[in-house]
Amino acid sequence: MKQPAKILIVDDDQDILVAGKLLLKRHYSQVDICNRPEQLPTLLADCEFDLILLDMNFGPGESSGEQGFYWLSQILKLRPDSIVILITAHGGIDIAVEAIKQGATDFIAKPWHNEKVLATISTALELHKSRQETKSLRAANQALVQASTASAQHIIGNSSAMQQVHELVNRAAPTDANVLILGENGTGKELIAKELHLKSARAQQVFLSVDLGAITETLFESELFGHKKGAFTGAQQDRVGKIKAADGGTLFLDEIGNLPLHLQAKLLTVLAQRKVTPVGANQEEAFDVRIIAATNVDKHALLDEEKFRQDLLFRLNTVEITLPPLRERKEDIAAIAQHYVDIYGKKYQKSPLTLADNAVEALTHYHWPGNVRALRHAVERAVIMTDNQALSADDFQLKNTDVSVSAPASSSQVQPTITAPENDSGELNLEIIEKQTISRALKQHKYNISHAAKALGLTRAALYRRMEKHGL
Ligand SMILES: Nc1ncnc2c1ncn2[C@@H]1O[C@H](COP(=O)(O)OP(=O)(O)OP(=O)(O)O)[C@@H](O)[C@H]1O
């Protein structure tokens, strides 16, 4: 079967043109010929050739290659991505080497051997294809970077704790130092990681995140380091790992504290050497990536060398930022709640909504085990359900309760009533049972999402989706 490729042969020797066309027509879909290089600008304007075979000398007795250099430069000026293979006279190797320095891809010496010509063209076309792919990937990447910069979320809260966080972010962001962000689930670790990226010199490059809590051990290497086609069963094509995909930008390693020790060792080696070898490859690839890591595991556990490699910790925590739980920055709650009231009010097309004093009080006194994420969901639910202009405490369906979570409970703490009952009520409705089970898992694991998700046999993303669905 013929390969879809447009090839142009430029030579003043009619025999070469005819022989070349005859040979290449059998293998490629379009082969055009031209015996006068002056026609090149018109031809290039009309057609985007995948490959051009260009003679170095035009006219009898010519051997300096001067015209070849001239037309090579014209082609590259008009179409900078062109793949040009030069046709040189036997013995014109020095000229060909010089032409490659000036942008030609390869050369073929006359008289040519058909197999050699076909092999050279096939390799050059592969190169062309991968250049085109790189170009469109780069364009897609740029569009992604612009879209994510435009949709950057605001970090709300001016408590003294958050002011210290901002101070650290502003100092660390431009330095390219690795940063470790600590904090309970939902405190805004990913938000801070993105802020560090956006305030760094890498802001115009990609920000990628990988959830190490959700990744299976077998997928770890393939996800981070990439793999080659055929490296293992199911590897049907080459895959670029996240580390290489983030080249030039920032890689956010979420839930680093959940990584088993032997995978920590693999990650450390790659980060220390700044080189990665995709599974099934035999060559290392260098990368330039800023690493920001985060975990909800507390500092004491990270300092336990039986659970976490201290040399990896040392590499990750050049700068350490700790995000306080929301209950320790209660003064931020009203502002964050109002921020999401505005956002969801617009989203659900409500007339401008406010928070009544009793709502602010109830929200402020709640201990928020799910932190800002839970507050955000509570606001969204209230906005959807309310008919009021000013959201009241009732709209949040809050009631006083004692809650057994990591935070010390007090009598003024409140919890949304829709939280599932602790006991199995003999309920047979699947939706309700799902909600009860999730609720119980969350409490059992003290709102550690990774652990609760693992216990439920779900990914973290799937658990978050269900928590949102049930308003948990
Ligand atoms: N200060 C803040 N202002 C506004 N929104 C915030 C703030 N902090 C967190 N959020 C919101 O709360 C949600 C959770 O934030 P994020 O995912 O950054 O938390 P996290 O600590 O990385 O969570 P996890 O540990 O579960 O991965 C997001 O929707 C985020 O936009």
UniProtKB/TrEMBL annotation:
Keywords: ATP-binding, Nucleotide-binding, Phosphoprotein, Transcription, Transcription regulation. Residues 6-125 form the Response regulatory domain. One of its GO terms (biological process) is regulation of DNA-templated transcription. One of its GO terms (molecular function) is sequence-specific DNA binding. It comes from the Bacteria. Gene3D superfamilies: 1.10.8.60, 3.40.50.2300, Homeodomain-like (1.10.10.60), P-loop containing nucleotide triphosphate hydrolases (3.40.50.300). Residues 155-384 form the Sigma-54 factor interaction domain. InterPro entries: AAA+_ATPase, AAA_lid_NorR, CheY-like_superfamily, Homeodomain-like_sf, HTH_Fis, P-loop_NTPase, Sig_transdc_resp-reg_receiver, Sigma_54_int. The modification 4-aspartylphosphate is found at residue 55. This is Sigma-54-dependent Fis family transcriptional regulator. It comes from Thalassotalea marina.
